[in-house]
């Protein structure tokens, strides 16, 4: 084996652990709903949308009437470890039940912010985004890590 081949082989071997470290670091740096992913103002905007479009089925307290609750252990266990995109798309495409798909992406983001606030997840300095890629990067965790 030539010196050049050995040098390339050694360079590759020493690079693998560095690449693995970068992957592990990026996985542990993933954002969750506990990282302040919405603003208080956004949640405030979501409240009247919730009352108008959602409360008739999910109750004023988000505890569920003719539909499942949107806070609490049951809700958290259904959505735990999924992305906020998954939750947002479920709302955007399938809600409200009597007018599926009628909510804008902005209304959905405001609704999710309101739900997070009511679940006592902390607000932050930036609004919950409406873009799919950004929402996919935020994990829903039902309990604080």
Describe this structure in words.
Helices cover 56% and strands 3% of the residues. The protein is an all-alpha fold and 145 residues long. The protein has a two-stranded parallel ribbon. The radius of gyration is 21 Å and the shape is globular. The N and C termini lie far apart (50 Å). The model is unreliable at 5-10 and 13-28 (pLDDT under 50).
Topology:
Blueprint: H1 3-28, E1 31-32, H2 40-53, H3 55-58, H4 73-79, H5 84-94, H6 105-118, H7 132-136, E2 138-139
Parallel strand pairs: 1-2
Helix pairs in contact: 2-6, 5-6
Identify the quaternary structure here. Answer: single chain
Distance between the termini: 50 Å
Principal-axis shape equals: globular
Radius of gyration: 21 Å
Lateral arrangement of strands in the main beta sheet? 1-2
Q: Report the major sheet.
A: 2 strands, parallel
Catalogue the unreliable spans: 5-10, 13-28
Q: Based on DSSP secondary structure assignment, what is the total number of beta strands?
A: 2
Secondary-structure content class: mainly alpha
Helix content: 55-70%
Mean pLDDT metric: 87
String of helices and strands:
HEHHHHHHE
Strand portion = under 5%
The number of helices is 7
Summarize the structure.
By secondary structure, this protein is mostly helical. It is 56% helix and 3% strand.
Features:
7 helices; 56% helix; mainly alpha; single chain; 145 residues; globular
């Amino acid at each position: 084996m030539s010196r050049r081949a050995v040098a390339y082989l050694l360079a590759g071997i020493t690079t693998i652990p560095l690449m693995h470290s970068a992957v592990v670091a990026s996985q542990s740096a993933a954002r969750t709903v506990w990282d302040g992913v919405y603003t208080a103002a956004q949640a405030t905007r979501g409240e009247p949308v919730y009352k108008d479009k959602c409360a008739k089925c999910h109750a004023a307290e988000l505890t569920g009437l003719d539909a499942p609750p949107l806070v609490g252990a049951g809700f958290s266990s259904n959505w735990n470890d999924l992305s906020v995109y998954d939750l947002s798309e479920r709302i955007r495409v399938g809600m409200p039940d009597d007018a599926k798909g009628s909510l804008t992406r902005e209304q959905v983001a405001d609704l999710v912010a309101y739900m997070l606030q009511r679940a006592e997840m902390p607000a932050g300095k930036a609004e919950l985004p409406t873009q799919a890629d950004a929402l996919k990067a935020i994990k829903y965790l039902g309990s604080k890590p």
